[in-house]
């Protein structure tokens, strides 16, 4: 894309949900009207129908809707009876809810650094960390940005110690590890339907998946305060239900999800090809061989002078975001865990250099080229 001093800037937002909404406006309004006519807003047939479709989509026996992705993580921990005195292994380079749910369950987060290529848990460090933490009851790998963690290695280590694996798949619905979909790779999988996700609701929403009938029954009770029979409580649970309006929206949108994923993959391929050709001093995403279906919830580069680049993009009305600028081990609220700067060098490098670009499927090629041109201009000026 050529520009001159007087040329008109082409704005490229990080995400444009209005463009997506235009593709299914009529269907979703009919679905919402169906719920309004039924006056059945809490759980019920809409939620059940969506859960069945989502379970089919993820290739699992059970999908249990809940109020948010954060609650999905907490419910998974409670279903495994993880609490005070227990530890859970996860990564410091992730959204806050990953470790926040562990603390809310009463357990202690223990961190393992990530791989720079995939941004996911470095399984080569996992066994050593577990050797130092015999109280660990679960491993919680994060499928960050839409690509699965190295689950064979993680599950092998978990099995050897008799501990569970909970997938934080909040950004990864439809992603695959060696042909198996996220959500079916551990004892439990946790998803978010926050509006910016590849499959987003019209508000908060979440889901837990499992192939274990006993865990599924427990999850369904835990999301309604721990009750399997009305006003009888077997456990202390939560009020965390996916409401019928959100389920109706998600039932419409899930049928578009594969097409949207193909659009994201196409955009990612265009970015990567052009960035390679231009030879800029950036690190582009390199999915591992085992990431047989990367869904690109984010397309994330590692960029020198990242913050200066963001300012240059913003000046041209090009959206970008930093996921995430401060690793969890350096957050004030986790100071009591005893970690310090330098403990997880890859996570800290990524926090300083990671930059996510517009990747949503409705982008035109000229939008992508505007982003590429702006980044190239920054590094060659």
Written account of the structure:
With 381 residues, the chain is an alpha/beta fold. The protein is built from 13 helices and 13 strands. The chain has a seven-stranded mixed sheet with strand order 1-9-8-5-4-2-3, sandwiched between helices. A two-stranded antiparallel sheet has the order 6-7. Strands 10-11 form a two-stranded antiparallel ribbon. Helix 3 (44-58) runs parallel beside helix 9 (244-253), helix 4 (69-79) crosses helix 5 and helix 4 (69-79) crosses helix 8 (213-222). Residues 1-7 have low confidence and may be disordered.
Number of DSSP-assigned strands:
13
Mean pLDDT: 96
Q: What is Rg?
A: 21 Å
CATH topology of the largest domain: Aspartate Aminotransferase, domain 2
CATH superfamily of the largest domain: Type I PLP-dependent aspartate aminotransferase-like (Major domain)
Structural class estimated from helices and strands: alpha/beta
Contiguous helical run count: 13
Encode the helix/strand succession as letters: HHHEHEHEHEHEEEEEHEEHHEHHEH
At the first level of CATH, what is the class of the largest domain? Alpha Beta
Task: Give the biggest beta sheet.
Answer: 7 strands, mixed
């Amino acid at each position: 894309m050529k520009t001159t001093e007087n040329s008109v800037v082409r704005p490229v937002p990080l995400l444009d949900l209005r463009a997506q909404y235009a593709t299914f406006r009529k269907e979703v309004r009919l679905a919402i009207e169906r719920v309004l006519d039924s006056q059945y807003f809490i759980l019920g047939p809409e939620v059940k129908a969506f859960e069945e479709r989502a379970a089919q989509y993820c290739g699992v026996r059970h999908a249990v809707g809940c109020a948010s992705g954060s609650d999905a993580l907490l419910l998974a921990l409670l279903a495994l009876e993880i609490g005070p005195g227990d530890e859970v292994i996860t990564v410091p380079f992730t959204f806050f809810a990953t470790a926040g749910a562990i603390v809310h369950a009463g357990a202690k987060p223990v961190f393992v650094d990530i791989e720079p290529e995939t941004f996911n848990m470095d399984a080569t460090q996992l066994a050593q960390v577990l050797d130092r933490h015999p109280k660990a009851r679960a491993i919680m790998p994060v499928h960050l940005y839409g690509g699965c963690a190295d689950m064979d290695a993680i599950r092998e280590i978990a099995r050897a110690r008799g501990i569970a694996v909970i997938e934080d798949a909040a950004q990864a619905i439809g992603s695959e590890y060696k042909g198996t979909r996220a959500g079916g790779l551990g004892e439990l999988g946790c998803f978010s339907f926050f509006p910016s996700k590849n499959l987003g609701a019209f508000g908060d929403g979440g889901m837990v998946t499992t192939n274990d009938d006993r865990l599924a029954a427990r999850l369904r009770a835990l999301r309604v305060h721990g009750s399997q029979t009305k006003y009888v409580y077997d456990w202390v649970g939560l009020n965390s239900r996916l409401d019928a309006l959100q389920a109706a929206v998600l039932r419409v949108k899930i049928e578009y999800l594969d097409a949207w994923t193909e659009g994201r993959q196409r955009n990612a391929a265009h970015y990567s090809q052009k960035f390679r050709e231009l030879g800029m001093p950036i690190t582009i995403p390199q999915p591992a061989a085992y990431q047989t279906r990367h869904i690109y919830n984010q397309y994330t580069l590692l960029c020198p002078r990242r913050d200066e680049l963001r300012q240059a993009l913003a000046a041209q009305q090009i959206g970008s975001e930093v996921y995430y600028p401060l690793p969890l081990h350096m957050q004030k609220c986790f100071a009591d865990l005893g970690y310090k700067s330098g403990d997880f060098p890859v996570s800290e490098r990524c926090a300083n250099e990671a930059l996510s670009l517009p990747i949503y499927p409705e982008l035109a090629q000229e939008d992508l080229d505007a982003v590429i041109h702006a980044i190239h201009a920054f590094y060659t000026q």
